[in-house]
Structure formats: structure tokens, C-alpha cells
Amino acid sequence: MINPFTDEYFMKKALQEAEMAFDKDEIPVGAIIVIDNKIIARSHNLTELLNDVTAHAEMQSITAAANFLGGKYLIGCTLYVTLEPCQMCAGALYWSQISKIVYGASDENRGFVKMGTKLHPKTTIVSGILADEAADLMKRFFAQKRK
Amino acid sequence: MINPFTDEYFMKKALQEAEMAFDKDEIPVGAIIVIDNKIIARSHNLTELLNDVTAHAEMQSITAAANFLGGKYLIGCTLYVTLEPCQMCAGALYWSQISKIVYGASDENRGFVKMGTKLHPKTTIVSGILADEAADLMKRFFAQKRK
């Protein structure tokens, strides 16, 4: 039997969230959190609408997933996010002890890899899933902004 | 004329917040944000009550101050926090472009200095203000927890 619940399957859901951000004139980043193949949080960047630098997609999904689970640790959960997390989001993910992080496009300027942010030792990382789609959305956003 | 608005003056307000966290059985960290000698945000750690790893004192104060100001950048603001910020909070402060951070006790395990988190180049740092008071509160908290 074919398993439909691939990383690409869930990243498509995160990309749908990123498109919602795009439509609201927000930097288009989307995130979801999954446990046992069930989506328990969906969010997209809302820093402009909420006037709040902390309103990154990942932060909202961490809070929402913890609410759903009734506990603050995200053990057994996977975060899918279209862009590599920043220092703040990687720092929050560190505290959450999340089991897996899957991201799309790399952020070579402000991503956690370049910035050297530490993740929890139990967290595994997968990168580059639907990276072109995520990067294209960012490029379209900033091209439109420059007009 | 004596200026009453010293770093110690404002750190005492942050310590009052930390004591409120202590009384709620939360790790006792408090924060305030000040602009032009006016306190525009007060908060204390609520990670247990809210079941949310992102509910650090600093994160709440960043959100509250941006709400007060009607804009997400905290230029001209000073954060007073009783404990050295972690990676997540330092990462949020980086995005906020806050002008000054004053902290009390150092966190030699999980503070941003040890972790290597980058702050905004325009942010100045002052450390060690009422550090003993902040550290004593933490020690009392963890001593009580071990009982």
C-alpha cells in the first residue's frame, strides 16, 4: 500500500498557508505541526497584521499545537515550515523538544544554520522539501514589493 | 537634581514581576519595557500556566510594547529582564531592533551569550543589574522545587 503521508504531502499544506500569508501582504511563510499523520496546527506569518515581530508562522503553530495537546512539549510532533526557521523560532523549537523539523527553502542570511542557533539534541532535521516552490513564492513577493 | 530613573529603579519593577511568577509556581523571571522613562509593558514567565514554551517574560513584553506603540519595532525602548535572555528571546529582540537590553543574572547554560545568539547591531547591552536579587529568587525557587 502506498503511504500518502509523505513529507511532500504535508509541506504542500504548509505552502497553502504561505500562500494565505502572501494574499495578506505578509512575507509568505507557512507552517503546520503534525502528530501521527494528523495536522494539529496551521499558521502563517502575521507580523504585519499583528504588528508583532514574534508572530512568525512557527511560533503560532508551536503555541497552537501545545494548546491542542494540553502540554508544552511537542515530543512526537513534526513541524513543516516553508522557510528555514530564524533564531527566535529555532530557540522556541529548542524549548519545545519537537521530534522533527522539515523545512523547504534555506534562509542563508537569517536562518538558524547560518546564525548557529542550537536545536534540542533529540530533534531531527530534514531540509529542501519543495524548496523551489517556497523560494519562488518569496521571490514573487519581494519582486511585487519592489514595484 | 537627582535622576530617579536609573537602571536599578526599573530593574526593581522587573523583579516585582519575577516575584509574581514565583508566587504562581513559574520559573521566576520578570520583564518590563520602558520608553522615555515610561513603563509600557510588564510581564512575567507564564510557560506553565499557559502550557506554552513561548510564554517567556520577554516575549510577552515585546508583544505588549508593540501593541502599545502601534508598530512592531522597539526603537528607543529598553527591556529590563531579571535573567539573561535565551536564544528565542534574543532572536525576538533581534527582530524588534530594541535599543537597549538590561539584564540581571546571567544564565550560563542557556543564555544567549553562551548560545551565541546574535542581537541587532544597534542594540546595546548592560548586564549584572541587581543580579544577586534575581539569582537569589531563582535559587529559592529551585530549592523549593527539590523539596
Oligomer: homodimer
Q: Report the average pLDDT across residues of chain A.
A: 97
The number of helical runs of chain A is 5
The helix content of chain A, as a percent range, equals 40-55%
β-strand amount of chain A:
15-25%
Specify the biggest β-sheet of chain A: 5 strands, mixed
* Rg of chain A computed from alpha carbons, rounded to a whole number of angstroms: 14 Å
Provide the structure class of chain A: alpha/beta
List unreliable stretches of 5+ residues of chain A.
none
Shape of chain A: globular
Task: Give the largest interface pair and sizes.
Answer: A-B, 29 and 29 residues
As laid out across the biggest beta sheet of chain A, the strand order is 2-1-3-4-5
DSSP strand tally of chain A: 5
| Order of helical and strand elements of chain A | HEEHEHEHEH
Report how far apart the termini of chain A are.
Answer: 49 Å
Overview of the molecule:
Two copies of one chain form a homodimer. Chain A is α/β, with parallel strands linked by helices and 147 residues long. Chain A is 41% helix and 20% strand. Chain A has helices at residues 7-23, 57-69, 87-96, 112-115, 131-146; strands at residues 30-35, 38-44, 77-83, 100-105, 124-127. The first copy, chain A, has a five-stranded mixed sheet. In chain A, strand 4 (100-105), helix 4 (112-115) and strand 5 (124-127) form a beta-alpha-beta unit. The longest helix of chain A has 17 residues, at 7-23. Chain A is globular. Chains A and B meet through helix 2 and helix 3 of A and helix 2 and helix 3 of B. Chains A, B: Pfam families: dCMP_cyt_deam_1. Chains A, B: Its cofactor is Zn(2+). Chains A, B: Belongs to the cytidine and deoxycytidylate deaminase family.
